[in-house]
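FIELD: query
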Amino acid sequence: MKKFKIIAALLLAVIVASFVLVGCTAKTYNIVIANDIVGGSITVENKTSAAGDIIKVAVSPQEGYRLALGGLTYSSKKFGVNHALGNTFAMLGEDTDVSAKFEKIPVIAAGETYAREGNKIYFGEYPQSIKAESVNIGAAVTGRAGYFMGDDGKMYLKKTGSAFNDNEAIVYSNGVTVGGSEQYFLVEPMTWTILNEKDGKATIMTDNLIDSKAFLDSKNTTDPYGPGDRYNTKPGEDKKVYANNYVNSDIRAFLTDTFYNAAFTDAQQEMMESVTNNNQDGVYEKNKYTEANNNTVDKIYLLDYNDLFDADNGFQTMDDYRQKKIDPMKTSFTTDFARASGAFTQTADTEYGGMGYWWTRSAGKESYQTTVLTSSRGYVNTQGINTYKDSVGVRPVITITLK
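FIELD: result
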């Protein structure tokens, strides 16, 4: 009898333990890799996983291709399409489809000033993608401080990353956390979208946010009250100039000098047209903040508020915007270099993951505010953002003469 009780107790313990184990085992879901990926392939270690598990995706581009910014996506019926910020994502609570968008690596042939594919122009070079692990850095480039040659024959810029608000969730496209570490960024052709083309000339805008800059550096203001950045009057000016004045802005100086000379060859600079821009109209038309915002004649500039709703430039109209339709032209991803420069980058794995916001040249509602376009939803912030914010992305516009 005693032996029977012992056996019964053991059986009961096994049954209870089985129920506990079954109850504690997390439900798993399938990971389905898309079968229509072009230009490369992706793999995951396990084909099933529980909700919340971190899934690492191995990305293998074909020769001449690379993973596009925001190109790694995962989706489900319930959660929709999400962009992974790097090469990992948190498993959704249902079967998840994983896909990737590869793009041709931009190449400008030797002796040419630009290349074109459809409505895309490859023009100028600027640091963008983080160095691949397979590349070894060699000698410094003579006459270009901070630049080095890789053993792949390409040039790289060395920079210590500084993530927006020291946010550890912001990572480079290879999954490495931004901030604190020294990295090398590939100097490569920039990709531009044609806004309009006429009479052998094309007005083009960068696809991605190529850098992160303050509209007006707080150290350069004449505001006696400190970081309110109310004024930016230069010596000899007879009018009070406000901080949201594009003429005197640091971002204009960056575009027309630093960026212009770093990104374009002499031959490319000759192709760029000088464009006269009206800077009088702010978001709320002319007001006291725009009185000294005179016209500018520049080869590189920012769009203004009205441009953002110009259908001739490929943007959605104001009517569509008021219906809260998302305009892909108003959304833009941050490059690895922009992230290293402190660009705000949407970290939540959503359909806006990896995107940032960017400056226009139009005055906002207050003297220290300038209109920005929030790329995370293509939302135009007419209130404006403080001009000294250096986490706002830069999306240049130029007009070039085509062959």
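FIELD: remark
The chain has three domains: 28-104, 114-188, 196-401.
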